[in-house]
Amino acid sequence: MYKYLEGLVDPYVDEHEGETPPSKIWPFLMRFAKPFRKLIILNLIISFAAAGAEVGLIYYLGRIVDLMGDTTPAIFWADHGAELVFVLIFVLVLRPLVQILDVAIIKNAIQPNIAALGRWRSHKHVLNQPVGWFESDFAGRIANRVTQMPAATGNLFFIMMDAIAFSIAYVIGAGILLMNADPRLLIPLMAWFILYVCLLRWSLKRIRPASRASSAARSKTLGFIVDSYSNIQSVKLFSHTDRETDYAKDILEVHRTTYAKENRIYTTIEIGLVTLNGILIVAVVGWAMAMWSGGSATVGVVAAAGALALRINGMSGWIMGALSGFFRDLGVISEGMETVAQPIHMKDRDDAGALDECKGAIEVKSVSHHYGRDSGGLSNISLSIPAGEKVGLVGRSGAGKSTLVKALLRLYDPEGGQVMIDGVDVASVTQASLRRHIGMVQQDNSLLHRSIKDNLLYGRPDATEAEIIAAAKQAEAHDFILDLEDSFGNTGYDAQVGERGVKLSGGQRQRVALARVILKDAPILILDEATSALDSEVEAQIQKTLYGMMEGKTVLAIAHRLSTLAQMDRILVMDQGRIVEQGSHDDLIAEGGLYADLWKHQSGGFINLD
Predict the structure, then answer these.
(1) Residue 334: how many CA atoms within 13 Å on its side-chain side?
(2) What is the DSSP secondary structure assignment for residue 586, as one 8-state letter?
């Protein structure tokens, strides 16, 4: 049964790619609920039936009291035995089936699947955001919102269907029962209900902002803690454990105070609720007893009224708790939407096609990009690199080298100008197809917390084991990979590398990254300080590997160690977002310009960045 219910809805059902989630909370929730609409309607019907059954039992309790008081046991059993057998079957079989179905649909068919659907869609949406978007927030806070918001959505639907729907049906049924017994019994119930709604309005106006503030503080706390753990080496190397602890204390104090303010509201609600429920019990039961004393109500009416009052007393606390949870979850969802409902900051055009073939010719036409500022980045730069040419890129820090590379990779859209590959504007093709034709080795290559094999397959998922090993050998990585063993007993290519590859040395990470790009075998190769993490002996070996990788490819190599650019066909010198010199190493030295000055002042083969 469980498997059947859990398989009623596919949580990974496709939706329109790139669609921006609604910015309003209810349309946002309805978007998640759409695949579950039939189950939700069915569950609402069952919840109403369960509430009706419970009210009916209370009514029948009053009827039994009246019947037992008006006759002898022998006559009672003779006249009503068959009726009682039916009620017995209803209580032992039919009512449990309704309640079990009610719980099973929400707990097994809806809640786990709606949470999975929310996490999958949110994660998918967030992954499509550009790199710069991630650089503006804590990774831990983003992850918290992606995982917690869908779980809160599942809880919200549970409350809406199981608690709110049930309670509404129950109050309606209670009103009908009391009205049938004596319409005057509705007066204390209606008076209580009006006061109860006033208490709800007072509390809910305050719960939602308080819950949202508490949720935001919780996410910030998690983001800070994850940031500390992710940078634990820096924390230890700079002896800042105490500093981080003190900083955490300030953040935790904000979290504590926001949570305390939220709980003040709940305590105030409880005080008001206890007072109202006491008045309800005294009013309903007292009024029923007064009517019995006057001969206008039976003992059964008093029993049913008392049972209803006591049940509403217990249920009202449950409803208030459910509504408090409802708005607490709304706060989590509202806060999470700040991340998962943001539009994709850089999307493929609607008519974007795939870049199926690539020879590697690059052309940059009057590109400017200043990151929204007045200076920095690129200033009206133009550049043409024929397919197969190897170009070195040098310049002081901030000269615009990385910005140029990011424009080529379309990690952002430039504020002006065009970047072309084989005469095709990179903005007119899908980002995924563009980047499939570009291999990049960076100065700091982080690896996924997976096996060596999984990290290498990132370069080409369909690569054979022989191709994986060949790429690792070419990158001088095969031998050390065979010696690896992780804490789970996995060895060699199956060994886990740790978060960001922390279990490997810098040189080992770099060689795995090189092997990954070798396996990708893209026609355009970008090297951003590709050998900076290697010692001199390994660098000499890797340089041979790099020269082999460059054969037949268009290469753009950034380097501060100018001697590594000796094999380049051309060297471009950048300064303040412009190309100020270009030519071979010998020609640039002979010109006596910026390149010659950098060569003259480099230390240990590196540019003096100042």
Answers:
(1) 17
(2) H
DSSP 504: S
Residue 510 reports pLDDT greater than 70: yes
Distance set, CA 39 to CA 1, 108, 161, 407 (Å): 16, 11, 11, 48
Handedness of CA 248, 253, 259, 263 (dihedral sign): positive
CA separation for the pair 83, 45 (Å, rounded): 26
Token pair 């068919």 is found at: 109
pLDDT in tens, 286-307: 878 887 887 777 787 778 777 7
Rounded-to-integer distance, Cα 417 and Cα 537, Å? 43
Picking from 148, 88, 489, the residue whose alpha carbon sits closest to that of residue 332 is: 148
pLDDT, tens digit, 9 for 90 and up, residues 12-57: 877 665 567 787 888 888 888 888 888 888 888 888 888 788 778 8
Q: Span 211-237, mean pLDDT?
A: 79
d(CA 394, CA 401): 7
What is the rounded CA–CA span in Å between residue 91 and residue 97? Answer: 10
Calpha distance 494→124 (Å, rounded) = 27
Dump pLDDT digits (tens) for 544-555.
777 777 888 999
The sign one gets for the Cα dihedral 284, 290, 292, 294 is negative
SS3 state at 303: helix
> Which of 405, 358, 357, 353 is closest to 378 using CA atoms?
405
Give the number of other Cβ atoms within 10 Å of residue 129's Cβ.
Answer: 17
206: left (phi over 0), alpha (psi -120 to 50) or beta: alpha
Cβ(181)–Cβ(287) below 8 Å: no
Confidence of residue 537 (pLDDT cuts 50, 70, 90): low
Identify the bridge partners of residue 393 per DSSP, sorted by sequence position: 558, 572
Burial of 267: CB neighbours in 10 Å, binned 0-12, 13-18, 19+:
exposed
Mean of the per-residue pLDDT values of the chain: 82
Q: Which two tokens stand for residue 233?
A: 């080496």
Rounded Cα gap, residues 492 and 479, in angstroms: 9
Residue 139 and residue 36 in contact, taking contact as beta carbons nearer than 8 Å: no
Do 154 and 110 meet the contact criterion of CB atoms below 8 Å apart?
Answer: yes
Alpha-carbon separation of residue 40 from 88, 110, 537, 605 (angstroms): 30, 8, 66, 68
- Residues in Cβ contact with 98 at an 8 Å cutoff, skipping those fewer than 6 apart: 46, 49, 50, 53
